[in-house]
Amino acid sequence: MEDPSHLSLNNASFSLCPSAATLYFLPSIYTLLFLTALPGNVLSLWVFLRCIPSISPTHIYLTHLSISNLLMAVTVPFLAAYFAWGSHWTVGDIPCQIALHGITPVLHINIYISLLILTWVALSRFAVLIRNTHASRPSSCITLLPHGFFSRLTRVSFANIVCGMVWAVAVGGIVPVTIYYSVNEATESAEDAEEGGCESVCYSPVVELGGSVSSNLNIFTITVFFVLYLLVLLSYVIVLKHVRRSRRNANITRSQSMLARVSRNIVIIQVVLSLCLLPYHIYKPIFITLAHDQPAPLHSSCLAVDTCHPLNSFIEIKNCLFLLAALRSSTDPVMYFLLDRTFRKHALTLLRSNKTDLNGRQMVWSTTGSANQRTENAGEANVTFSGEALSCERSQQLHCNK
């Protein structure tokens, strides 16, 4: 005989109960992200495309990363609106369709383009370092890489090819699955719920949990993330060993600054991946397992039912960790300052020149305003003097007539 409580769960329809974290915290932070990510990435693109005279492969990688971050920054206001008002939209409403068909693919494309580009920057700098700074003996990593690989790393054309492949892999792998998720898993499940007498809202278990296809893709992308994350970590460990060997070799003391700079850059990339992306990718398999263990009827939602979904708190944790991953688009311009000296130099020069121009305009306005004020005061004095003279003349005429 089955457990009656289990039967009641299977026959119930649940809805999400957004807390203050979903209704106020997430929209506020996403709005702040928009206000910082948009100007930061516009400034980065301006520096990379207009201010730096000679473009290096690293600048190509960071330019494409800025373009991806800028696309994400444009969609962030819609994401803030989704969390603030998604529980009042139905799945058929236009704002919900924009969130499902537009925002979802852009967010995931941005995350994995950033992951691929940052990993490639770390590995390429690691490869150039190992190639150009031999310590007491050449590194064994050189024999593992193809012949001519190091010469290609210094070519801008090769960097453009790599970025094109990154965009093709990210867009070609994510867009079809997100379209399937938004059309079949979310929309059709919502239509089935409406046929059963339920009105499926946009912020609902149907949308937040997804289906088997999107879950399988998530498992694949999580595996890719950890493979790339471990590659960056392995490259840092090898660089540390290379630095220790080089310090015992008096013949390459001139390369010490290069060794320190490359190791610092890899550490910066590792910290960004660890703080922004690692928590989300650790939690996501746990969340998928919990969602997979839930009975199928728990994926429906009705506006008339006040019972909260059992995974309501887990869904909100997932969304907060995804916010942490999205915040990377706002902090990447700061990372550019730390990674690239040329970018730092031109960005500071641009900011100082803008500040100087602003101060100069304020001074001109102040000088012009003072001159105009003096003119107005003089005019007022002339008018006053003329009025007094006219009144004096009239009084004299009246006195003579008397």
Question: How many E-type strands?
Answer: 0
**Count of discrete domains:** 1
- Estimate the strand proportion: under 5%
The major pleated sheet works out as: none
Structural class: mainly alpha
| Strand and helix order | HHHHHHHHHHHHH
Report the uncertain regions: 1-12, 297-305, 362-402
CATH topology, which one?
A: Rhopdopsin 7-helix transmembrane proteins
Helix coverage percent of residues?
A: over 70%
For CATH, the homologous superfamily is named as Rhodopsin 7-helix transmembrane proteins
CA gyration radius, whole angstroms: 31 Å
- Cα distance spanning the termini: 126 Å
Shape: globular
The number of helical segments is 13
Under the CATH scheme, the architecture is Up-down Bundle
The CATH C-level class name: Mainly Alpha
Q: Mean pLDDT score, rounded?
A: 76
Transmembrane segments: 29-49, 61-85, 109-130, 158-181, 219-241, 262-283
Protein name: G protein-coupled receptor 82
GO molecular function, one term: G protein-coupled receptor activity
Domain G-protein coupled receptors family 1 profile: 40-336
